[in-house]
Amino acid sequence: MLIPEIEAFLQCQTPQSWLECALDQPELLLLDHANCEKKAAGTALSLMFRYAEREELQQYLSRLAREELRHFEQVTALMKKRGIRYRQLSASSYAQRLQKHIAKQEPEKLIDTLIVLAFIEARSCERFYRLAPHLDDELGRFYTSLLKSESRHFEGYLRMAKLYAKQPIDQRIAFFAEVEREAILTEDAEFRFHSGVPQG
Q1: How far apart are CA 170 and CA 74, in angstroms?
Q2: Using one digit for the tens of pLDDT, what is the confidence trace for 166-198?
């Protein structure tokens, strides 16, 4: 079951056309999923270096990076079992569409970054939930098992944003919710795990 907080947080569901595209391209889905897990770990580690003085954030990101790398290992093991070779893929425009609105000055930059990461994790969780019933048993069980961790990451990033903000962040969350909705409903030429509506 998708947690109600995530349904309330996101302003739209994944479009049916994206879901159909994903189910038509299982190899690409797994490939980009693996890349997303690796990027999520890399992002957590880079934030650890950038904000070394933030003790609570350090501890949180360290745990999160380990978990994301574990997921990367699990996805690539599934790929190997299915005869899919791992390779890099170009990224979708999704994260870039959110990141271009991040404030340039601190501490607003950190807060916005954490809010954006919460949206990325929430969307990942929602997509796993939408995909799981349509996949084979092994992959469906795996994607269902990821729901808890992705929702925990979403909650953790939001908690960190609230911890370091000097004022309420509801307005920034609402702003990025609209940006995220637009990113999901915008047409994308290439299919990726976080891409928008498939062209054509």
Answers
A1: 35
A2: 899 999 999 999 999 999 999 999 999 999 999
- The pLDDT, as a whole number, for residue 4 is 87
Cβ neighbour number for residue 104 with a 10 Å cutoff: 7
Q: Exposed, middle or buried by CB within 10 Å (0-12, 13-18, 19+), for 83?
A: exposed
User: 135 and 143 in contact (C-beta within 8 Å)?
Assistant: yes
Are 12 and 160 in contact by the 8 Å Cβ rule? The answer is no
Task: Give the residue carrying structure tokens 């569409």.
Answer: 97
Query: Does 107 sit behind a cis peptide bond, omega within 30 degrees of 0 on the bond before it?
Result: yes
Distances from the Cα of 148 to the Cαs of 33, 39, 55, in angstroms? 17, 19, 25
DSSP 135: S
Structure tokens given for 157 = 């990033």
Long-range contacts of 143-150 (CB under 8 A, 24+ apart): 146/71, 147/2, 147/3, 149/67, 149/71, 150/121, 150/122, 150/124, 150/125
Cα separation of the two ends of the chain? 31
pTM over 0.90: yes
Quick one: fold of 16-195?
Ferritin (1.20.1260)
State both tokens at 173.
């969350």
Backbone angles phi, psi at 188, to 5 degrees: -125, 135
